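User:
Can I borrow your eye for a moment on a structure tokenisation matter? Would you put together a sequence-and-structure record for a protein of your own picking? Please set it down just below, with no commentary around it:
AI:
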Amino acid sequence: MVGFLTLVEPVVIINTVGSSFYDAALTLAVYNRSLETAMGQSDQAQALSSRFFFVQSSLASLLSLLSTVALGRLADRRGPRVLLAVPQVGSVLSKALLLLFLLLRLPLWVLYLGAALHGLSGGSPAYWGGLVSVAALRSGEGARSLRINTVELFSGLAGIAGGLVSGYIYRLGQSGVALTVVALLVCAVGLLYSLFLLDYPSPSGTGGREGYRQLAASPEGGPIDRSALALLFASMILFVLGMSGAENVLCLFVLKPPLAWDSVWAGYGRAATNAMYLTSFLGVLVLSRWLGDRALILLGIVSNCTGMAVLAFASQSWVYFLARGIMMFACIPMPTIKSQLSKITDAQLYGRVFGWLQSCLALTDLLSVLLFTSIYPLTLDWYSGFSFLLSCLISYLSVVPILWLHWRRAKPGYTEIPGRNSPICTLNTADP
């Protein structure tokens, strides 16, 4: 039982199920309210919903920039509990506001308050920074890529379950009230588990920093390769820039003709999306015997971009699910790159580095949502799938930093850091 309480996966499962319920309730609540405002005009409702989600994402992302790095620095001194628990408080509060919105039929701007509370508490950037920190501290360097992919796997499995069930719970009562109540209760359980049950990595020996260093020391205590950090950051930023905004408008794309999904089909779509975590994990588990981390990252990028291009032509439901099948390895790049970051970063700086990383990704997410929610309404009249082709093009650019890093690896004067399948290079100070 004690060993089980050291695992971060239960937190991931509980929160992902709750967030899946919440996302479904929020999307349908906003779209239905927009339909009322637009007098039943689907295209106008799409534009209104797109504008709402842009403002909401902007608030959450910008405000998370104010808190995530500070929470990361605090976590370096106090432990990763700070990064994991505080964002969940904001998450519970935002779900409570959605419940009030539905029960009291409040104006849409009330939901912006929920996004603001979530952002000020660190939001998704701090939460995922905490998850990655705990997973990295609990794993050895050789197994770290698989360990972080395992966390993503459980997130995906929980998302599949949440997506399959959410549509049916939504039908139980009052336009999403039942689904929102369940989401709120589930996320509250996740918060309580994080606060009182989860056993966090604890300092040992001569102090907190030394304890973390013993748990997961940086490679041979050598200097951090800042250019490698920058290239890995750049790759993730480009990948998220192309992917995030397109996924954001996709949830609206499936609600309008020609697909015109109801709550159950929308739940199936979310389940198919989360199934990519499972197929990506299996891909890492099997293919890592023959492919290094770099090859796996490139495979994931190609898989994601190809599937997104197919989504641009989805006029029937089977095409959508075919595209998700092509994207089976789309979830490999992010956790694998994060694993590489952990291998070239001292453990005492995990909170800071992952805090900065998640803040950069949050800002990128905001720019991506701004880009795609601005373009998508303009393309509804002539080709609504254009956004997904643009997403494919931008995400493909994320291979450039990875290939550049591989080129640096081959240069004389650099040596590969210890760690299986590691594509990262550090300066060989023994060379003249």
